[in-house]
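User: Show me a protein chain along with its predicted structure.
Assistant: Here is one chain, sequence first, then structure tokens.
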Amino acid sequence: MIASDKEPGTTVRYRPDLEVVWEADWIWRSRRIRINDFAYFRKEFKVRGALVSAKLFYSAHHTAKVYVNGKKLGGFVSPAPTNPEKRKAYLAYDVTALLASGANCLTADAHYLGGGGQNYYDGLPGFRLQLHLTYADGTEEVVRTDATWRVLKEMPHETGTPYQQNRRVSAIEKFDARKLDPEWRFAGNAEAATLKAKIARIVREQWPMAVQRIPEGAIEEEIVCAKLPQPAGSDVDEERPQVFDPGRIVSGWPKFKLKGIAGATIRLRMSEDLDENGRVKHNVTNEHSDHYYDEYTMRGEETETWQPDFSFKAFRYVEVTGYPDEIMPGEVTVCWAHTDMAYVGSFSCSDEHLNALYAAAIRTQKNNTLGQTVDCPHREQAQYTADTDLQAETLLYNFDAIDIVDKTLSDFTDAQLADGTFPFVAPVNYEHKDFHIQIPEWDLHYATLMWKLYEASGYIAVLEKHFETARRMTDYFVGIRDPKTGLVPLDKGWHISDWPYPTVEHAGEHLTVQQIKLVLALRIVSRSAELLGQKKEAGAYANLASELSDRIVGQLYDPEAKRFRDSSESSATHQGVTAIALLADLVPAEDREAAIDSVASQPWECRTVLSLPLLRMLFENGREAEAFALLDRREYPGWGYMLVQGAKTMWEGWEDIESHSHAWNGYPARLLQEFVVGIRSEAPGFTKAVIRPYLPDGLTFAEADVRTPLGIVQAGWYREENGAVRVRARIPEGMSARLSLRLDGRTIDRELKPGDNEWSTDD
């Protein structure tokens, strides 16, 4: 969009509590389907008297920005992506304050991707809006999209531009400001520049509409960039590259505010990396791309401001070319944007390295939640079950993230295949050959994610909503068990166990990690059935879990080594395989301590996926020192190694070769809060809690805030100069809590009351 003296100011926030019965038509600028298409819509109408309320609802496929008399509604990248055949999201606003008596104007800029990309569903292009006016005299009026709406003949956005990534998740924005009349968004004589809109060809009423529950995208911070030295060899280059650095990898988009030069085309190229000459590389993380840029052609106004915000990107550096003058500090910024979920968590301790680890994990989570949880905000922008399961650790402890985690479960319910399995991501153009992919082990994370959301929220409605999907998924795996071994074979798809670049051996037909994840899923289905009053089903699934557990131990456990083999044809015994088996309580009781000793004493072998069960198993089985040593580690491998290399967000794996902002590596933030400060839930919805801190020798204090449905739990421990330990905790009303402190070989237990609590070993 172009900014001028009439540029929209503060946006109007969306209202998920408002719902509507849809009557409006889906419209588009033509009946021809084009990839990376745009449409600019306009409708003038009159307000004939005093208004009591004006409620506006809109949806688009794929995204739109809506303006009322020039004021932009809501946030960014809206509506959130879904499979519209199952559930099409719409936004709702109260716009009463934006309307005036007499002539008013609605405009909308809509964008359709449609290229068979990875993180959306193609469907067909369309825009839909209803504005409900209620007058003081009791009468009502509805303004809705239909054939009376107008569309801009010559649009400022170029259609059919290349996709920016190999997975076709966002398109280059090429915007010519000369083609948008500054009066377009306001009532008046703009009809000459328009054509009639077209009613969308398909019967869109088949798309079930649902108000969007997750917050829209919002800009948290506009970061002023440092200007880097002029790239080598570019002093006579007509492009005149000027490179800017916000200081870290950011999800969002670049923005400039420059003196207008009529006809000048400004290119904004983005990347995580610079080449040997100091120019921005042509890549999206580890994949080559000549198209990770956006362009703006200037109108020639005194000052012009622009940001390519129809989609989001992620990058460290911005290279500006095509602007003939020197760009001054502050004229190029980066908008850090993410889903506007409230962030209420915290962690702080006496070690700045651990504080930096927590901060990097939180930044990474924010970078990966614009419209849905995604694995990385640049190369893929895709929503996986396993990735969200790992992300949910930190999200649910630090953010008001119930709705965004629920969206992952709902999207996979919508994508569930007839046999009960899932595509590898959702939403997705699964029928496209590039994305006709499955990851069976990832399917099993649906159940653990569902249970994690239930425990965090305490809402039985979570189980009521998602139980049937989880049951159908587990039934598929039960149904393909080998009749001789009773174990689940490899079956279709891509198999992982650990990632990235794991050393788990996949030599056999039956992978141990997959079997264990199925046991966990069956137990969850059983517990869920019990809570939902389905006693018979609860018993049946509990029996299946027990039977499979026996088969796993009987065929995949090495009683001499006290470890589980990686797979049915392997003699290898990976640290993470036995760690997840211990966490699932599958190791024979008489061997448990020996197995824990074996795992704890082994060099760190796990990658991102299996390091979480490894750390949880160690923390929960009296091996806090070994677990904390991994969290605190500064050498390769580990999260600390990333920070030592200068990272301010978490990488995809231990190696510096792929995504440098990968949300599944953000769970150390949760572990610091849960095990070092010791804030732990003991009942769904945090109705019962324990403060059970671990006091490493190198720390003098650690404190944290954790979000719960009952309010924020605050806790901290502090070493006094005289050697005493002081503990503080603030407990919300309605929560039963206790302190359990292990110190000098003894355990100190104290009940904690609602409100402020303080206790010291000197007391």
